[in-house]
Amino acid sequence: MRVSIIGSGYVGSVSAACFAELGHEVICIDIDEEKVRQINAGIPPIWEEGLGELMDKHAEKDLIATSDYDYAVQNSDLSFICVGTPSDEDGSIDLGIVRAASASLGKAIGKKEHYHVVVMKSTVVPETTEKVVLPLIEEYSGKQAGRDFGIAMNPEFLREGKAVYDFMHPDKIVVGAIDKRSGFAVSELYRELDCEVTHTNPRTAEMIKYVNNSFLATKISFANEVGNICKQLDIDTYEVMDAVGTDFRIERNFLNSGAGFGGSCFPKDVKALIGKAMAISYEPELLRSVVSVNDRQPLKMIELLQDKIGELKGKRVAVLGLAFKNDTDDIRESRSIPAIAELLRLGADVVAYDPMAAESMKKIYPAIAYTDTAAQALVDADGCLIMTEWGEFKALDSEFDAMADRVVIDGRHMVNTKNIRSDIDYVGICW
Ligand SMILES: NC(=O)c1ccc[n+]([C@@H]2O[C@H](COP(=O)([O-])OP(=O)(O)OC[C@H]3O[C@@H](n4cnc5c(N)ncnc54)[C@H](O)[C@@H]3O)[C@@H](O)[C@H]2O)c1
Question: Which has the closest alpha carbon to 300: 358, 355, 378, 221?
Fold first, then answer.
């Protein structure tokens, strides 16, 4: 099949490369000319395990990129909208980019003779596909939904860092369409994958995505709340969750307490669902608590550091880990951002290290120091915060010897507490 993908970020570039791998002809559309150039050169615009190989294999053959909507729509049968859906000031979803992409897509569909299917893949709150995207496409194309073009919502559930694997091995594929013709066209794209397709309507598909992410975020905040209580009572929360997680109704995943969740999805999606609930006059108490527990966690790490080394003014603090999680260079909503902000507010000298994400963080904090290794960051440090679960932090040992004061505040349960050396003042955030 012939597919165009609007937006070549995490979701768009991974979907494009994977659809090409599944045997489809793919055209990426992006307004960022640099991303267009990179994709045409077989270079992924983001880092994802396995993406480089796929891009290199398919570029200039069945995977090309352009900024020309007309060309892409004329030469494809379906267009996926994969642009960003950031939060606005009050946390509700900002649909500005979706509207702009829908308008451009509508204009291009207006110039096409044949039937075309529009597929919303960006995460959007319920009713957006039917009440925002569909009318915009009709307005700008002068065509009628259901007759001249189809519309479907196909949420994406990939995990950053494992996005290619997740796309090729999904545990669910959800297609919410306005009619059978659109829904069938979308599910055909996934025919080669070993996964049943859930067919539903667009608003249910939109809700499934939000409920998925909000539930996982809720599990994390629940684990953090329990962890905070356990720490006060001298109970190992990991031991608690290991036992509780054996209950098949609960499951152990996402019960690791720590510095909280970040990334481009969980914080934004929980806030967007809160915004949607408010818009229909429902007060989402539980979801609000999920966010407030999460906001508190990184600041707890600074409090623990202060308990150990006192006032932070002029103290050198090593921040290990800047990405929102391991195996990605993505720093969006990373818990290290509020942690560094608080350290700077209190007058600390911050020395940061991350195996992948330092360049991204330099755009937010250009004035702090960055090192090439964790060992360098620890030299002469008065304290250290572990913010991301990079595997290499597990192996840190003699590197702590170079610290001026060996205080380690662990936000990710990275150091084996049973084997910790007695000369290291080790503090777990919830344990
Ligand atoms: N990142 C994830 O892990 C993930 C997972 C599931 C769902 N999602 C959702 O998918 C959507 C996209 O997220 P992302 O992380 O890939 O975003 P991103 O910001 O990485 O990428 C968006 C891309 O769209 C391009 N763009 C902006 N306006 C455009 C326009 N008018 N026409 C064409 N291209 C345009 C940008 O240049 C950028 O390359 C969001 O709704 C997000 O919530 C993301």
Answer: 221
pTM, rounded to two decimals: 0.93
Place of tokens 């070993």: 194
For residue 406, report the distance from its CA to the centre of ligand 1, in Å: 41
Contact 413, 428 (CB under 8 A): yes
Which helix (H) or strand (E) segment is 342 a member of?
A: helix 336-345
**Is 265 one of the catalytic residues?**
yes
Beta strands across the sheet bearing 369-370? 369-370, 349-353, 316-320, 383-386, 407-410, 425-428
- Specify the pLDDT at position 420: 77
Tell which one of 93, 98, 174, 264 to mutate to probe ligand 1, the residue whose CB is within 8 A of the most ligand atoms.
264
Looking at residue 91, what is its pLDDT? 87
Identify the pLDDT of residue 422. Answer: 86
Helices (H), 41-79: 51-58, 69-74
Q: What are 66's strand-pairing partners?
A: 29
E strands along 217-310, which residues? none
pLDDT of residue 355: 97
**Distance in Å, CA 83 to ligand 1 centroid:** 3
Residues 6+ apart with CB under 8 A from 152: 117, 118, 119, 120, 129, 175, 176, 177, 178, 182, 183, 185, 186, 202, 205
> How far apart are alpha carbons 349 and 356 in whole angstroms?
21
Give residue-wise pLDDT tens across range 145-173: 999 999 999 999 999 889 999 999 999 99
